[in-house]
Amino acid sequence: MSIGKIFSKPNIAKYLTRGTGIAALGLVAYDAHILGKIEADSYAKRKDADACMSTYSNTQYLSSPSTTTSDLKNGVHKFEMDSNIRHFVNSTIGYFRGVGQMLINDVVPLGLGLGAVFAKGLAGKASAIGLGLYAGLKFFKDILGFGHYNDLNRKY
Prior knowledge:
Layout: H1 3-6, H2 9-59, H3 67-82, H4 85-105, H5 107-118, H6 122-143
């Protein structure tokens, strides 16, 4: 294979198309990972707080006056406060919830990126062009703020 064949016009278009798709998929995956980490932390802390509040609330009353029952309820509450298993499981659940939420949020660039990477011929090129148009629209609307209504900076 010669250098001329690699840099011929059809190959450059193919590599640009695939590169655009890979870049889009990388950005979507990065955003999904970051939101997954944020959601893992908040979901686990929220569920830990709910579980601790439930066990604490359970220690506040007795159906019959019994020191043993009170000590057992306090022991369950202390175990719940010191347990790390619930946090690990809930952080895993929260991570996948965050990743799924971001993948649903970014379904357009995800689909266009997959099309640019895996589709052949005109469909792949159309997906890459669609990614470029989507990126331009996103830049002008969300980054620069054109066409975006802002209640805080009203002119009148």
